[in-house]
């Protein structure tokens, strides 16, 4: 039924202007603003746009909503930190990030950060 459809995903934010600045100016994603509908389209390589919409009672996702595959997680973390992005640290049994905020055990290297609305994003090692 849906095999030939171009599915897309979306998520909410509490302030569309803050999201626009973050995703376009800091993360350098191409965006289209549809101001009449109060949404942004994030243009991700591969042609699968992501919809970002403002929601008055927004609550940040408690899980990773968007992963950015990169060749070098440590380098990506350093570059994003230089732009003012703060990375999450985890210290749980069997799940711990190192001093560089990178998880390096039990799967691909990954580091998590939040957008201005508190949604969780990541940079993750490319596996292909």
TrEMBL record:
VOC domain span: 5-126
Protein name (record): VOC family protein
